[in-house]
Amino acid sequence: MRACFSLRRLLFVVLLVLLGSSGGVFAAQRIPAEAWRRVRVYDMQELKNAEPPLRQFVGVRFHYRHAKIRHVKPTWHQGSIWRYNRGARENFDYIQVMVSTADVPAFKAFPSSLDTVGEFTVYGQILKEVGSDFVFLRLVGTKVNRDKAGNALVSW
Q: How far apart are CA 104 and CA 123, in angstroms?
C-alpha cells in the first residue's frame, strides 16, 4: 500500500513538472487561440455546477485567498481562493489551487482577509491529481495579452 501511495505521488510530481515546463514556469503561460476561445470566466458556484472538463483553462472570480499556503511539492504550493456569497444558503465558496514557487509572491499579493473590498479574476487550468479525486486549479496568472494570431499570454 505504501509503495502504491509513493508511486502516485511521484506521478503527480512528474505531471506538475511537465505542465510547468511546457508553459515556462518563469514566463507567461501561452494558451493557443483555439483553447483561449473556450475560456470562460466563472463565479465559483457556477464553476462547481458546470464541471468543465479536466485540462480546460478557465477564469474564476474571487474575493480573497486563504492565508495558509502549503509547500507540498518541490516547486508547487497549495492554497485556496474564496468568494463570499451574500444571502446564499452557504455564504462561502472556495476552490483549491496550486501555484508554482515562482508565482507565490504574486499569489500572496492578493488579500488574505474578507475585510478587503474587491473582486479579482485569476486564470488557471483544471487538473486532477493522478490516482486520487483531488481536483484543483493550477493558477497561471491574472493578466492577459493577445498576440496577432489570437494566442493568449497569461501572466501575473
A: 15
User: Between the CA atoms of 9, 15, 17 and 22, what dihedral angle is there, to the nearest 10 degrees?
Assistant: -170
Beta bridge partners of 99: 77
Q: How far is CA 42 from the centre of its chain?
A: 13
Of 145, 143, 81, 137, the C-alpha closest to 110 is: 81
Domain count, the chain: 1
Contacts of 155 (CB under 8 A, 6+ apart): 27, 28, 29, 141, 142, 143, 145
pLDDT digits (tens, 9 = 90+) for 36-52: 999 999 998 888 888 88
Q: What is the CATH number of the domain that holds 130?
A: 2.40.50.140
Q: Which domain holds residue 112?
A: 2-155
Question: What is the reported pTM?
Answer: 0.78
Q: Is the dihedral of CA 100, 52, 117, 113 positive or negative?
A: negative
